[in-house]
Amino acid sequence: MGERRVNLKVDLAGIELRTPLLLTEGPLSGNVASIRRAAEHRLGAIITKGQRPEPAVSLTPYIAQTRERSLINADWSDMGYAAWLQAIRTLKADLPVPLIASVAKNYVSPQVAADQAEALSEAGVDGITLCDYNVPALIEAVRLTRPRVKCPLIAKLIPFIPNLEEVLNDLVAAGIDGIAAMDSVGPVMEIDIETGLSTMGSPDGEGYLSGRAIRPITVRYIYEISRHVDVPVIAVGGVTDYASAIEMMMVGATAVGMCTAPLLHGLNVFDEVADGMERWLADHGIADVNEIRGLTHRRQAQRLITSDKRAVVALERCTRCDRCVQSCFKAAPEMTDDGLVIHIERCVGCGLCVSICPADALCLD
């Protein structure tokens, strides 16, 4: 039998990506050399580090792995807008993947952001993202920028916007072509208990959290965003492997961004994730990655909502590890000489045992 071919190409608001994976704003896309290194891997596009109006240097230390294997950072460093214009002209001469410029809108007025975006568009970028913690200012920046640039315009959203549907509708009305979500979560803090000091060198010790710890937040955010708008969505936050990339596309993402995972594990993570996505899709008989986009919306609409399910064990799979027995707050599982027994009269169907079973020996039925 011949090799099963899988299509990973996606269309991001008119930008063709060879894979749905993006290197998003951060240290790995902060200069020409870093961007060129990243482009050697299986990613579809690169988003530059957020471009500030003037060069900036972060107080050290400003990036650290947390105890939960996520990332906390207080990285404000940048080479400045003028240097970025020259860098983009240099990169566009031979970069093999699309380059999207990120304007750090929170450091400039909407009018200045529009001025910068126009110059970046003329320099040849394939798209522009705007990010601002001030949502009304972000909407205004989109409105001013839209008639001045020909390339796709993307808004990157902060977490936990309370009036999300209204904001999304306003962004679409202002002329946005796509949504990226989400920015890091914070401010947060982690302490080195040997010194009593914050792990960040910022004056107040605060930073922002990214990586696997925020994945479930991002999943819900993308699910909600894609319910309200019909524009491409880039999922950013918590993607570390092929499963989390597929998960983001199932809840509605067109493309998936990574920053923390390649920082912690190297740029080869893009190759590993792309290869893993191809294998998973082929194993499930799916020829095109675009087929899974929005699958969760369709499946959730058909799901039977019930409180009647209880735990069931497949004894032939059970390894007698005892994890379910230790974790059950209702004492429903019991390990006997004959194997695991579920006392149905105690079980409330919470699902915890199913989620922690290493042998996939439990289910709810």
Shape: globular
The tally of beta strands, per DSSP, is 20
- Regions with little confidence, pLDDT below 50 for 5+ residues: none
Q: What is CATH's topology name of the largest domain? A: TIM Barrel
CATH homologous superfamily (4th level) name of the largest domain:
Aldolase class I
Instruction: Work out the helix count.
Output: 12
CATH class of the largest domain equals Alpha Beta
Tags for this model:
TIM Barrel; 365 residues; globular; single chain; 8-stranded parallel beta barrel; 20 strands; alpha/beta; 4-stranded antiparallel β-sheet; Alpha-Beta Plaits
Concise description?
This protein is of the alpha/beta class.
SSE blueprint and pairings:
Elements: E1 10-12, E2 15-17, E3 21-23, H1 32-38, E4 45-47, E5 63-65, E6 71-73, H2 81-91, E7 99-104, H3 110-123, E8 127-131, H4 135-145, E9 153-157, H5 164-174, E10 178-181, E11 185-188, E12 191-192, E13 197-198, E14 207-210, H6 215-228, E15 233-236, H7 242-250, E16 255-258, H8 260-265, H9 268-283, H10 295-302, E17 311-313, H11 323-327, E18 333-336, E19 339-342, H12 352-356, E20 362-364
Parallel strand pairs: 3-4, 3-16, 4-7, 7-8, 8-9, 9-10, 10-15, 15-16
Antiparallel strand pairs: 1-2, 5-6, 6-14, 11-14, 12-13, 17-20, 18-19
Helix pairs in contact: 2-3, 3-4, 4-5, 7-9
